[in-house]
Amino acid sequence: MTSPASDRRSDLAIHTTDLGKRFGERTALAGIDLEVPRGTAFGFLGANGAGKTTLIRLLLGLAEPTSGRMQILGHDLPGDRAAALARVGAIIEEPRFHPHLSGRENLKIHCAARDRAAHGRIDAAIARVGLSARADDRVKGYSLGMRQRLGVARCLLTDPELLILDEPLNGLDPAGILEFRGLIRALVDEGRTVLLSSHLLDEVEKTCDVAAIVDNGRVVAQGSIHELVRGGPRAIDIRCTHPVEAVQLLAAVPGVTRTTDHEGGLRVTLSPEAPVDREIVTALLRRLLDHGVAVERVAPVSASLEERFLTMTTRLEDRS
Amino acid sequence: MFDLRLIRAEVLKLRRRRGMLSIVAGLTLGVVALAFGVTAIQHAGNPGRYGPAGGAANFRDALDVVMLLTIVAGAIVGSTAGAQDLESGVFRDLAATGRSRVALFGARVTGAWAVVLPVAALTAAAMAGASVGLAESLPAPSAAAVLAGTAGLLATAALSSAVAVGLSALIGSRGPVIAIVLAFNLAIAQILVGISFLGDLRQAIPTVALARIAHANADVHTTLGVALAVVGAWVAAAFAAGAWRTKTREI
After folding, report:
1. With a cut of 70, which residues of chain A have pLDDT below it?
2. d(CA A226, CA A277)
3. pLDDT digit string (tens) for B113-152?
4. Which of A56, B149, B150, B205 shows the smallest number of beta carbons within 10 Å?
């Protein structure tokens, strides 16, 4: 009989506990606890130097952790690395290839390090990323976008249960980004898990179901995109007559932290403890109308993932 | 540890480097063709002044030169096999498959051998053929001399390329490795051979062992058994150092 804890672990594609990595005196990861559910697109967000790529390198066995535990697809790392990575496809930063070989030959080289069935998937993988017409050209003639596509094709050779993609949108034009987003969603719809590390917050918000925000080597927030955004700053935009008086009136409403001019109207910023939106809007309107201020427009402002990210993280230059 | 699919992949990477293969072929087969060809033309033009191109003595002289050039050829192929995954950044993706890194390294050594040894064998065959075919009135090289010369060339190619693969794993790029292999074999080894107070320690110098295997002119006496053991030890040391670095490298 399996325990509830082990059931939960089997639902996770990636599970790390107190994972740490030091480079000499510098701490790159300081106790990362990460849970990536199977069958989701998982966004991994962090500023430059936050530790995103370091974590990916540890997961892929490219560097050794200094503390903590990690599991991929239920296999312990580093002890069971070969089994853990057998059905993991990865792009780490910019995908690299032998430039003097064709795209197809590069995939053949990679297949030699995979199981024998991988070789039979080459044509399908090339077709899926739209590179069939250029597959026999040397990679040295490929654009960065084509290399990214070839990198994805390389990931598909292993029929992956888990794809780990580190900044996969680099070098893609807007059409390529849109196409890539569709590809990721299609892979997730097939039951695969995608870990997407990116600095393009808008893309993560549009593509992923779940995300973690990492800062200074620690996970500072983790949950569904909806949950992450909901925890962000709240505000209400109001357009009214007598804005100067309105600022003073609104300051007295419980839950209002400040009121500022914003695009010809006022932006009322609310504290996290403020009542739910409907109640606070009613309170604000009543306060203004009771004092003879006519209200032309009221619009709640929802925080974006980007705003949420900025409130949670420190920038690299701030740290130094 | 030696996976045939990985070795085939390594050979594919090397085979597609046409420029490198041209240089290697030029240094070995090309030099043999040039040396015997020019001498043969000179002999045909003026037999009184120029002797036949073939014969046992010419075989020995050609062997000395070709062994030196085979060191260069082995270093080029070995350093390319050893460093191309690291230099291109592909090694990271191969390691991320979870495949044993020692197996990945082993494939580089055997892949380099799969390219350089046939070239060395062809070169030896061309030398032997020319030495016998163009001997005319001169004594042709004996079967034992041809066999020893071929073994010497093969050992030279195997040792040079294996050491270059191992050094490439330690250093991570081709250029310095070729420079180190050449500097050691062409300069440092010659200086060490000349230091007489080193005595029997000089038997451990690779060029001394290779000269013994090839029955070439040698300054230090050693037995065939010791020579084979020395070559084996250098290959093993290069393999061990390269495999260790490949296994422990953080990418």
Report:
1. 1-10, 230-233, 272-277, 302-304, 307, 312-320
2. 16
3. 999 999 999 999 999 999 999 988 899 999 999 999 999 9
4. B150
Yes or no, beta carbons of B250 and A97 under 8 Å apart: no
Structure tokens of B105?
């390294």
Q: Is residue A61 less than 8 Å (CB to CB) from chain B?
A: yes
The strands making up A256-262's β-sheet, listed across from edge to edge, are A256-262, A265-270, A234-240, A295-301
Give me the pLDDT at residue A316, please.
46
Q: What is the ipTM of this complex?
A: 0.88
Whether A85 sits inside 8 A of B17 (CB atoms) is no
Other beta carbons less than 10 A from residue A179's beta carbon: 16
**Residue B87 vs residues A22, A93, A96, B173, B248: alpha-carbon distances, Å:** 26, 16, 10, 6, 17
Residue B186, pLDDT above cutoff 70:
yes
pLDDT of residue B198: 87
Asked whether the beta carbons of residue B251 and residue A109 sit closer than 8 angstroms, the reply is no
- Residue A5 has what pLDDT? 53
**Sign (positive or negative) of CA dihedral A140, A143, A146, A148:** positive
Give mean pLDDT, residues B202-219: 84
Cβ–Cβ below 8 Å for B12 and A57: no
A109 and B CB contact within 8 Å: yes
B64 and B166 Cβ atoms separated by less than 8 Å: no
CB < 8 Å to A60, chain B: 95-96
Residue numbers of B between 36 and 95 with CB closer than 8 Å to A: 84, 88-90, 92-95
B182-201: average pLDDT: 89
Chain B hits for A98, CB-CB cut-off 8 Å, are 13, 84, 88, 90
Inter-residue contact A188 to A19 (CB < 8 Å): no
Contact flag A84-B93 (C-beta cutoff 8 Å): no
Q: What are phi and psi of A83, to 5 degrees?
A: -70, -40
Helix (H) or strand (E) holding B233: helix B224-248
Q: What is the pTM of this model?
A: 0.82
Kindly report, residue by residue over A254-263, the tens digit of the pLDDT.
Answer: 888 888 888 8
Cα–Cα distance list, A110 to A117, A250, B12, B96, B145 (Å): 12, 64, 12, 11, 44
- Confirm or reject contact between A308 and chain B (CB < 8 A): no
Three-class secondary structure of residue A295 per DSSP: strand
Partner B contacted by A101 (CB < 8 A): yes
